[in-house]
Amino acid sequence: MEWKKEIKIFIYLAVAFILFYNLPIGNQRFDGAIFEALELMKWYAQEHVILCLLPAFYIAGAIGVFVSQNSVMKYLGPKANKKMAYGVGSVSGSILAVCSCTVLPIFTGIYMMGAGLGPAIAFLYSGPAINVLAIILSGKVLGIEIAVARTVGAVSFAIVIGLIMAFIFRKEEIKKIEAAAELPEPETPRPLWQTIIFFGLMIIILVFSNWAKPDTVEGFWFAVYSSKWIITSVAALIFGIVLALWYKANIIKLVAIAAIVAVSVFIFDNPSIPFGVAILGLTYITITGNDELKKWFESTWTFAKQIMPLLFIGVLFAGFMLGRPGHEGIIPSVWISDLVGGNSLFANFISSIIAAFMYFATLTEVPILQGLMGSGMGKGPALALLLAGPALSLPSMLVIKSVIGTKKTVIYVSLVVFFSTIVGFIFGLI
User: Fold this and answer.
1) Which of 22, 220, 251, 384: disulfide with 420, CB 3.0–4.6 Å?
2) pTM listed for this prediction
3) What are the φ and ψ backbone dihedral angles of 146, each rounded to 5 degrees?
């Protein structure tokens, strides 16, 4: 008998027993935190899984099947032109406009295909941090100087943190370069412009189906919001044609699925249901399609199995600890307000830490911050929260750890918190 292994099992069982034996069920705050964890999980499932995560998984799966490893290495690999690689990675969020969890499948896809750690990290940070609509809303609600500082800080962070990560783990990057040199020239079953259109349509569907409502009922951004489902539907229709013509998907099946989705639009008021029907239809098309389409589903399913359980665990824990916007978890919100008051270095650090672990859906950081500033939060900690919060969350950390390992994740999170703290402190002094 391996006594060390058995002792470990005994300790785990003993800790679990003590924990459950002493659960403070009936305590108002504890019961409320349990409720908040479940409420946040329910909200996350309703608002993010169908519209955000599922299309993101299919994009990630497509990267693994339809984009050659050589292409990824050429433009984003360790040996790629740094200006291009970091330039693309650092401004990607202005196109994607996704939250810290939705960007994860796409990050995983490009990293697994051989992207350099630096450009991949730049993409990971910038994806949720540089949201055009969120920056505009920040300017309107919180002031133009915070919006400008957020924009400059986010782009700079993406590049600087990416470069630092690449330097720290340069030995591993060298191994990637050596491995890439041995890759054979890939066969290209279709021209590049077709692949670009294919991915462009999926990104349009992802972005516009999740387009958030602006704070005004007029102007360009509201017009885009009002037309979001028309744009999404047109993009989906063209995407179906592309699947049939270039990827040899079964036309009869595609027409049948399109008809079912169209009928569901008239039956259900909730747009997530027709969207979910369309995703199920795409799943059926890929599972029953040719070898290339089957590989696409297999790649997508691999990412889903790896990422979704970790996201769900993280969302539940974040809800239990910090609650939802406007609702408290196990940690009283007054503690947070007291800790982030003023513009001290400590207040900026606490703001960065709390932001790093809390889950922010797209645009929700602005009203949360508005409430905190009304409770005495300084402008420095406010900027620190904007720089650390959208880009990180406990759910995203769990997934990042599974992709790049514990050491890289700890360093990445530490760099985000460090730079958010320092920049927020300097901004608070200006």
Assistant:
1) 384
2) 0.80
3) -70, -40
